[in-house]
């Protein structure tokens, strides 16, 4: 069945799309092969450059760095979700004194680059008297301020996209606006916007890598340290390749968990609808 916004391609269009896909795949494979060949030609796959990764101490430090990355991600993810919900509720409030500050807060921290936020936290605040700002605090606070503001718009858009009848039904049974938001609208908005929320969580995980610029000892910071070891051939490229594999693995695990949560929520909704239908 064709869509209003998309016409089903005909035989010629399907054939053309197949050719384009094949050509694109060949080009991508060719680029990857050329890069790998250049790595091989420049000696990036020699045993000398990879020997350092066989040392137990190096592997332990990588595990510690992964733990630091996950710690920053976990705190930042929870903080961003909480801040996003609070800002979204503030944006939807009828009180002007609450709605306007939440609007400007969201717009401000969405516009400021995340790296600048981290540097302000770590280098700027101590210069004006705020002591004890560790790299972990700078990374986490920067991530929360930026991603919380982005998620605020996600939650607000999800809530406003719901049918007005949802609100009216809540008001009809005597709920306040806050109760309607918390009990009726927010759970539905989270379920409908879950793919976008998960995508933003993946962004948070990857953005923890910016912490190496303010000396936070996460995966990229330690990889950069290993890449500078001259007696092992300065394995910069191998260290970055290992780091890339680690980040891809972490993102795939997070995506898998997200799909599992999404399927659980969908199955729960189906069970509830079935029971309601039986009662009806």
Question: What would you say this structure looks like, in words?
Answer:
The protein has 280 residues and is mainly α. It has helices at residues 11-41, 47-50, 56-91, 96-111, 114-127, 135-160, 164-172, 177-192, 194-207, 219-227, 236-279. The protein is globular and about 75 Å long. The model has no long low-confidence stretch (mean pLDDT 85).
The string of secondary-structure elements, in order, is: HHHHHHHHHHH
Strand content: under 5%
Main sheet makeup: none
- How far from one another are the termini? 32 Å
Strand count? 0
The DSSP helix count reads 11
Structural class: mainly alpha
Please mark out the parts with pLDDT under 50 across 5 or more consecutive residues, or reply none.
none
Q: Estimate the mean pLDDT confidence.
A: 85
Rg, alpha carbons: 24 Å
The general outline is globular
User: Which bin fits the share of residues in helices?
Assistant: over 70%
Task: Offer a concise description of the structure.
This protein is mostly helical.
Give structural attributes.
0% strand, mainly alpha, 78% helix, 280 residues
Helices and strands, with pairings:
Elements (H helix, E strand, L loop, with lengths): L10 H31 L5 H4 L5 H36 L4 H16 L2 H14 L7 H26 L3 H9 L4 H16 L1 H14 L11 H9 L8 H44 L1
Helix pairs in contact: 3-4, 3-6, 3-10, 4-6, 5-6, 6-8, 6-9, 7-8, 9-11, 10-11
